[in-house]
Amino acid sequence: MRPLFVIRRNRERGRGAPVAPPSPGVPAKVIRRMSQARERGIPDATVARLPLYLRALNGLAERGTATVSSEDLALAAGVNSAKLRKDLSHLGSYGTRGVGYDVQYLIYQISRELGLTQDWAVAIVGLGNLGRALANYGGFVSRGFRVAALFDADPAVVGERLVGMAVDHIDQLEEILGRRGVSIVVIATPASAAQEVADRVIAAGITSILNFAPVVLTVPDGVDVRKVDLSTELQILAFHEQRKADREAGSPIMTEDWAEAMDA
Amino acid sequence: MRPLFVIRRNRERGRGAPVAPPSPGVPAKVIRRMSQARERGIPDATVARLPLYLRALNGLAERGTATVSSEDLALAAGVNSAKLRKDLSHLGSYGTRGVGYDVQYLIYQISRELGLTQDWAVAIVGLGNLGRALANYGGFVSRGFRVAALFDADPAVVGERLVGMAVDHIDQLEEILGRRGVSIVVIATPASAAQEVADRVIAAGITSILNFAPVVLTVPDGVDVRKVDLSTELQILAFHEQRKADREAGSPIMTEDWAEAMDA
DNA sequence: CTCACTTTGTGCATCGCTTCACAAAGGGAC
DNA sequence: GTCCCTTTGTGAAGCGATGCACAAAGTGAG
């Protein structure tokens, strides 16, 4: 079963084989076909932007727009139009030259690519303030995702009903995950519990985790972890804010900063 | 006051002026000096990782570790050690060869670089489930950040007390932001209100926004917006999850997918 | 049909980040 | 002091992402 090439696939990013240079003798059609085929190699940066495009498209669709040019869609999504076109070209050739993209069709294609045409059962572990906020957050249930299980370790919380669902005790984690077909787990526990929860859900077969706890989770290969971290974001903002402040007050050449840095 | 060069600075990412090509005649020392000097040009990718290092360091400090090698720290932060060293080298030369980094000293240096030695007054706008979770979230108050104001548009929520602070009505936004010296605003409103809130806080002089609402905010140059978006993260996970599923079930060559894609 | 115009899809140059690999620098033993 | 060991700091190569600029491909008018 799935030898060599699976492993190769795993690391196969972007272009894969270095498409032959456009020597004038080679039939252009063959080259085209190859890059169209793309071998399932959509760049990570592109994948990260697809949800953005999807949201912009849904906005357009609600306002009844039937087709949209890359220029306009890029504007709505806040990106450069060349980037948008290149991103979409990784999915296939879904536009019409001289016209633009059919909004509904593009929504469908992006949704399909992102796997939103099926629905995903999501479990939330940890029902403190953040976990509750997530459970109640209607936005992400809207398309493709469904909260299928809630877990907490606190006996006072277990049994409580949230969004029409009882909170289960963490002891039943493995059993219920399996029974309800959960494939994505959201960790919203305190930092101290996060790694243990991760270990358990991974042992139960989960390979996609969204982590809100402020820790670096250690996971085996093949498990995807995405991290959302408030304090990190604030710290990045603070860095830039400080810089702006420095710039206004400090000397343009910034010699003082230097002196300070030097003697430290 | 601050003419031309301020604008230039604004767009000056990374290296700044296009360092002359490494023509063999140019004295290497000059180039060296320039990149060492860094002109306050810490790469964005590095800035984004500094909070991570800081957290790992705090963990080590709590356990009483005095010095740490780049190898160990990198392990704790979940990055490659060469990357860690290069990141830290952008801040200065704070390690000791043959020994490693002094944990306390490095904590101080990173904190200073991130601007965490001063404290930042943060306002939260929108106190639905998410806003409340953020207000209660102790983690980010810990170091450098302080919740200084809470706003909501709902009269039923205004006046309520959260984390020892009364919720103010959004009408008083500008006045209170100024009075309490707020410099970072967290938007946790519904999507429909987010742009208006952003416009108002920017008009009031705010230049750093952390946006939880699922919309692309349009802001003038000089304003930093960072976005945290649950549904985007879930969609990215779903994409990879789907891929993993395809890989197990589907044909390695993936001809079927093709047929399906073609007739659509 | 041809012509003018619009907009996509992409080759290519560029840029910035990552990673390797090693010289430089410090510590400790003797 | 010298020698050996450890670990940093960084030049340079590699790699992926970005954005320009344009040929290709479509529409619509006449």
Structural features, described:
Two copies of one chain form a homodimer. By secondary structure, chain A is an alpha/beta fold. Helix content of chain A is 47%, strand content 15%. Chain A has eleven helices and eleven strands. Chain A has helices spanning 4-11, 28-37, 44-62, 70-77, 81-89, 103-114, 129-136, 173-179, 191-203, 230-249, 255-263; strands at residues 67-68, 95-96, 100-102, 120-125, 145-152, 161-162, 165-166, 168-169, 184-187, 208-211, 224-227. Chain A has a six-stranded parallel β-sheet, with helices on both faces. In chain A, α7 (129-136) links the parallel β4 and β5. In chain A, α3 (44-62) crosses α4 (70-77), α3 (44-62) packs antiparallel against α6 (103-114) and α4 (70-77) crosses α5. The longest helix of chain A has 20 residues, at 230-249. The first copy, chain A, starts with a helix and ends with a helix. Mean pLDDT of chain A is 82; it is low at 1-38 and 251-264. At the A-B interface, α1, α3, α6, α7 and β10 of A face α1, α3, α6, α7 and β10 of B. Chain B binds a DNA duplex (30 and 30 nucleotides) through α2, α3, α5 and β2.
How would you briefly describe this protein structure?
The structure is a homodimer of 264-residue chains. Chain A is of the alpha/beta class and 264 residues long.
Sequence-ordered SSE layout with sheet pairings:
Two copies of one chain form a homodimer.
Chain A: H1 4-11, H2 28-37, H3 44-62, E1 67-68, H4 70-77, H5 81-89, E2 95-96, E3 100-102, H6 103-114, E4 120-125, H7 129-136, E5 145-152, E6 161-162, E7 165-166, E8 168-169, H8 173-179, E9 184-187, H9 191-203, E10 208-211, E11 224-227, H10 230-249, H11 255-263
Helix pairs in contact in A: 3-4, 3-6, 4-5
The structure holds a DNA duplex (30 and 30 nucleotides).
